[in-house]
Protein: LacI family transcriptional regulator
Organism: Zhihengliuella halotolerans
Amino acid sequence: MTEVRLKDVAEAAGVSLSTASKALGGGRDVGETVRRSVTKVSEELGYRSRSRRTRADALPLVTLVSDNLESPYTLEVLSGAVHAAKRMGVALISTDLHGAREGTDVMSPAWLRQQVAGGVKGIVVVTSEVSDAQIRWCRQNGLPLILVDPAAPNAEEVVTIGSTNWQGGKQATEHLLALGHRRIGLVRGPEESVPAVERHQGYLTAMQQAGLEVAAGWVQPGLFTPESGRLALLRMLESETPPTAVFATSDAMAIGVLRTAHEVGLAVPGDLSVVGFDDTWFASWSSPALTTVRQPLGSMGQVAVERVLALAGDPGRFAHPFQLETRLVVRESTAPHAL
């Protein structure tokens, strides 16, 4: 049987050789109608590009996308994903939202087409916002997609991996209540972040069940960064009845609270108790060591890779979210409230 060449595809589609190459390679300067026409012809003729032939005997590919590949949170999720990929004989490609070549935004239709053309089995997106249009594109084009700790809620159905954020937020607050604290502040996290909202709700539930009102100024926004934790504590301290304890919905923000407390002369935990969330590596190395809610970040990465490969084999296998258990880790940053 004669091998189908790119030239044959171009002639059958009625386009130039360069246009056919761009259409199949995800080039941006090709219209969608032309792209679909060329793609259809290539499939009908059974055309396989050289890169696809070369990859025939290569490992299956999974792409992991994150908003920040430098944060301790993401690195722990990535470590778990790498472990699962090795165990399952998969090559893992990692990138951030700014990691595509010039002219092609990560998660754009052109970038997604490149993933499909490159033989990627599925995409795992970590703590990054994904639009409903992107979810639909992946579903319509047979590209499995899983979100880890989604940055915003979606109307479209998509498989998510997370932890028991509501329960973790409730645990953190109940720990402070058990120590006698009644004025408990919260550094909330990004307003649209699904995990941040769930942790906030856990905090509110614990306060309500304890019969306590949350005073104005006790709940402050944050961005999962130390600087936002610093600003949140400074605003809390301006209230008429400042908190004696603070629950920050990420370790990074909790570290900002710890440092700022020291700068303004508050002893932790003597004057202010602090709880974080994540239990990333620097929680145990902070001074004092941080009491925090541990979420199994490595396991979340492992499960994401396992599930995206399962979806590649059977797209209708499941659609429900997966939640892994959190647990409170008590260290040195919390103590009974001094009356």
